[in-house]
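Section 5.1 Outputs to date
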Amino acid sequence: MMHADVSNRETIIVGDFNARNVSWNCPCCDTCGLYLDNAYKKHNLFLHNFSSLSYADLRRNYRSNLDLVFSTQKIKNQISVSVSDDPLGSDHHAIQINVSVEKHRHVKIKHKINSVRTNWIEVHNLLEANYKTFLSRDYDDLDAKGKYERFVATLTEAILANTPTQRLVSKRKHINPVPWWDPECDRAKRLRKAALKKYEFSLD
């Protein structure tokens, strides 16, 4: 920490520094404490547990704060630090560090229709016939939202009117291509098609 510049990184530095300084709740300052205080401020780091007491010497009735948690300014608001009251048999108390991490998932939305059953020539003809509705006075008087909804509704109606509601299935589909073809072969074929579609989708 003394020599590396980590100010522009997402970094957490934790350790028993054995450095005393009144700035982080020690009863006195020593050379290491003064050096560490200067170093973390020079690198613009954030000290999370400046008011805790992580070390206890019960024989001397002495307590100090030697175990410190630093982070870069970039992630200081994502970190919370707490010191356990139970030393668990040690002279150093356990320190719990919670880091809040958000993962953003990018989903690419495609605004296109790909239907092999739709008669796109008839869709084109129907839209051509209804094109003048977008030049009418009624359409011109609509607000932006109304115009958008009318436009989408016109497209949707044209597509639905020229898309069969039931898929026509050839009778030959249920005829086994070879004598040994069984339901397991049908299942393997469906899985292969699904895997191919998933692969093609991942390329976009």
